[in-house]
Amino acid sequence: SRDIRLAVIPGDGIGTEVVTEALKVLEAVGTKIEATHYDLGAARYHRTGETLPDSVLEELRGYDAILLGAVGDPSVPPGILERDLLLRLRFTFDHYVNLRPVKLFPGVETPLADTRPEDIDMIVIREGTEGLYAGTGGVMRAGTPHEIATQESLNTAHGVERVVRYAFAKAQSRPRKKLTLVHKTNVLTYAGDLWQRTVNRVAEEFPEVTTDYAHIDAASMYFVSQPERFDVVVTDNLFGDIITDLGAAIAGGIGLAASGNINPDRTAPSMFEPVHGSAPDIAGQGKADPTATILSAAMLLDHLGRHAEAAKIEQAVSEDILERLSGWASRTTHEIGDDITARVSS
Ligand code: NAD
Ligand code: IPM
Ligand code: MN
Predict the structure, then answer these.
(1) Among 14, 73, 87, 235, which residue has the most ligand 2 atoms within 8 Å of its CB, making it the best to mutate?
(2) Are 86 and 29 in contact (CB under 8 A)?
(3) Domains in the chain, number
(4) In whole angstroms, what is the distance from residue 12 CA to residue 9 CA?
(5) Which residue has the least CA distance to atom 9 on ligand 2?
(6) Within a domain: residue 139?
(7) What is the rounded average pLDDT of the residues 3-20?
(8) What are the TM regions of this chain, as residue ranges (predicted)?
(9) Pick from 65, 199, 203, 180: which is nearest to 124 by CA?
(10) d(Cα 275, Cα 255) in Å, to the nearest integer?
(11) Is 82 in the pocket of ligand 2 (CB under 6 A)?
C-alpha cells in the first residue's frame, strides 16, 4: 500500500517529547510514512504573532491524517492557541466525532477498589464541533461591576444526529451493544431535549442496541462507583471533555489516554492526539509518558485501514504496561518510547 502522508504538529510543552516517541514507534512497526512537521504553537506565536495561517490550514487539508502532541503554554493568554489552533482544526476539518476509549489495561493500577480490566472498557464519543465550544455569546458592560458574560451552547439537529448515529453504529459493533446518553436534560432543557429526542429516534434503526441515559453529575459518580455500567457513551463537547479526564484517571492515568478527532465522512483529514495537554509542570524533563500518543498513533493507523499495524502497537503497549508492575515510574519518556519501539520491531 502507498505511503501515509502525515502532518505532524508537535505543539507545545510535552507535546514535542511525546510525538517524537510516537513517530519512532510508527516507523518501527513498518508503516511507510512521509511525515511533514508543522511548527505551530507558542514559539511560532511569539515569533510571528501567527497561530494557524490560512495557507497552512489549507495545506493540512491535503494530508491523510494529522498527529498532534498538545498546544497551550503559560506564556500565552488562555484560549488563543486552544481556540485559534486546536479548535480551528477540529471545526474546519469537521471532526464531529471525538473518539476517546476508556480502557483499563491488565496490570495497570486504577484508583478504584476491586476493579478488573473487564469493568472499565468503554468508549466515549464526544461531539467535537458544537456545544459550548462554538464560541458564541459575548460580553456586555465589560470591566464594569455590571459586566454580563454569556457563553452559549450551540446544538444543531444535523450536528447532534450525525454523532448520535455514529455512536449507535459503534455500539452495534461491540459485544455489549449498549449506548448511554450523558447530558443534563433536567436543566439544559432545550439542548437536552434535542439530544434525547435524537437518541430516541435513531434508536429505532438499531433495535439490537440497548439505550440508557445518565445526567452528567450522576455519570461522573458512576464512572467511579460503577464503571461497568458503560459501554458506549455519547455526549456533548464540554461534558465529553470533562468526563474523559475522569475516564483517564480511573483507567490508570492521563498518560495512557488516547483520542481521535474523526471526520467519518472523510472530507478532510482526521487528527489524532493524546487526551492530555502540554503539561507545563513537567515539560522538558523527560517525565511525560508517551503511551497516550503512541496509542493515538495506533488509532490513526486503524482509521487508515492499517489494522494489523495498529493491533501490533496496541499489543506492544499492553505488554509494556504489564512490565511496569515493577519499577515503571523510573523510566524516562525516551525509555518508554524505546521499549515499545523494540517490541513492535521484533
Ligand atoms: P495537562 O493535561 O497538560 O496536565 C494535567 C496534569 O497531568 C499535569 O500534572 C501533568 O503533569 C499531567 N500529565 C499530562 N500529561 C502527562 C503525561 N503524558 N505523562 C505524565 N503526566 C502527564 O492539563 P492542564 O495542566 O490543565 O493544561 C496545560 C495546558 O495544556 C493548557 O494550556 C491547556 O489549555 C492545554 N491543553 C491542551 C490539550 C490539547 O492540546 N489537546 C489538552 C488539554 C490541555
Ligand atoms: C482536550 C483539551 C481541549 C478541549 C482544549 C485544550 C481546547 O482539553 O483535547 O481535551 O477542551 O477539547
Ligand atoms: Mn480536555
Answers:
(1) 87
(2) no
(3) 2
(4) 9
(5) 275
(6) no
(7) 98
(8) none
(9) 180
(10) 8
(11) yes
Last residue of a domain, one of 213, 230, 251: 251
- What is the mean pLDDT of the segment spanning 239-266? 98
Cα–Cα separations (whole angstroms), residue 245 to 18, 124, 170, 276 = 18, 11, 21, 8
Contacts of 90 (CB under 8 A, 6+ apart): 98, 128, 129, 261, 271
Ligand nearest to the CA of 277: 1
Model confidence at 81: pLDDT above 80 = yes
- Which ligand neighbours the alpha carbon of 71 most closely? 1
Distance 316 CA to ligand 1 centre (A): 24
277 lines ligand 1 (CB under 6 A): yes
Cα 269 to middle of ligand 3, angstroms = 21
Q: Which 3 state secondary structure label does DSSP give 124?
A: strand
The answer to whether the beta carbons of residues 129 and 159 sit under 8 Å apart is yes
Domain that holds residue 96: 1-105+253-346
Cell of 303: 482509521
> How many other β-carbons are positioned within 10 Å of the β-carbon of residue 38?
18
Mean pLDDT for the chain overall: 97
pLDDT band of residue 2 (cuts 50, 70, 90) is: confident
Do 14 and 288 form a contact (C-beta atoms < 8 A)? Answer: yes
Is residue 254 lining ligand 1, measured as CB closer than 6 Å?
Answer: yes
Reported as a pLDDT band with limits 50, 70 and 90, residue 268 is very high
| Cα–Cα distance for residue pair 317/256, rounded to 1 Å | 10
Spatial contact of 180 and 167, defined as CB atoms under 8 Å apart: no
Active-site positions read 133, 184, 217, 241, 245
Is 60 touching ligand 1 by the criterion CB < 6 Å?
no
User: Residue 237 has which C-alpha cell?
Assistant: 463537547
Q: Is residue 328 part of a domain?
A: yes
- Tens of pLDDT, residues 196-236: 999 999 999 999 999 999 999 999 999 999 999 999 999 99
